Amino acid sequence: MRTKILIYSTAIALFTTLAANAQSTRYAVTDLGTLQGGTFSQPLYLTDNGLVVGSAALPDGSQNAILWFNGHMADVGAPGLGGPNSIAFGTNKWAQIVGEAETSKADPNGEDFCGFRTHLTCLPFQWQSGKMTHLPTLGGHNGYANEINGSGQAVGYAENNTKDSACPAPQALEFKPVTWQNGQAHQLPTFPGDPEGIALGINDNGQAVGASGDCAAFNPNTLVDLQPVHALLWEEGKMINLGNLGGSAANNMAFAINNEGLAVGSSDLAGDTTFHAFLWSQSTGMQDLGTLPGDFASSANGLNDRGEVVGVSLDSSFNPRAFLWRSGTMTDLNTLIPAGSPLYLLTGCSINHSRVIIGLAIDTSTGQPHAYMATPGGAADGVESNPPRVVVSDAARRLVQRQMRFKRP
What we know:
This protein has a single domain (28-403), classed as 7 Propeller (Methylamine Dehydrogenase, Chain H). It has two helices and 29 strands. It has helices at 2-23, 394-403; strands at 27-33, 41-46, 52-57, 63-69, 72-75, 86-91, 97-106, 120-128, 131-134, 143-148, 154-163, 173-181, 184-187, 196-202, 208-215, 226-235, 238-241, 252-257, 263-268, 275-281, 285-290, 297-303, 309-314, 320-326, 329-332, 343-345, 350-351, 357-363, 369-376. The strands form seven sheets. Strands 1, 26, 27, 28 and 29 form a five-stranded antiparallel β-sheet that branches.
């Protein structure tokens, strides 16, 4: 009996030590850089084998889809689909990259679907082995692909050819959540009564997440022409409503799902005066992850298969700071990196199984937004327990908003 107690006590002590070590992980930070002559870059997705995708500015101010790997940056947006702008939103370990790309054709309805204020047609794309090809819509002119899993199944949303009179100009056509498999588009169901919807994340089991609701004026927080009423999960073509955090079902979106079926996103609280990051599971439902101390709102953008969550916490003026949520505790990522770092971490976008994190940072010497990668293994000393808050520019704040669903300029 005493032996069993000793074994049990030892196991508890070991678990406590491992948990404490995991919670106190320090990070080394790498600036992923910008294209030559460009002023900013933004990373959006990270795979377990270290591929990073996003976008970077060109000298003329346009954006191209970018792939980072082992310290190298590749411009996968040139020549694109003929237009000036593209963004890579997701990739799998095979470097099958998906996103949105403008064409050279003006949208027939004057829409600005890609959000670059060019009013050019915007198409979902898949890039592989140096070639970008467009994915089909549902009969309309525009769409985008957001993530792709290891089986090559992509998700996003696309227009059909039905006009929605409730859509404020310039948006004219309905848009629906979509999966693409083998080059074919398949529409996903929205919540009953919701005319529009978007799919934002997919795991290797084919489970997808997103939101549905009403066509609305362009939302500066979600960056889509959607009032996201219901956060949704799709499994084998069936729709599951994930609920909300007490708000009046006016701002609920699920952004990512891991291979264990855990989903993250943001949802309004009761009174609809703010929104918080959430973690959802089949067994517990939607859990409020809160904010960093003193902050007003938060959003969870990504998670790994360990259930570790990254995102952004915001003060009442929407100044952001990146967070890592683990084992019930939300930590400011800036407290886990070396003191005096030239980068202040604004968002956590994606985290992989090795606990590597990517996101958007500010170069404090220039004020320019840069992509960063934070890798476990930084020095345990020399960190700041309470680093000074950085007030960001309007331009940087807009970049953060692009990553809070969803990623359009």
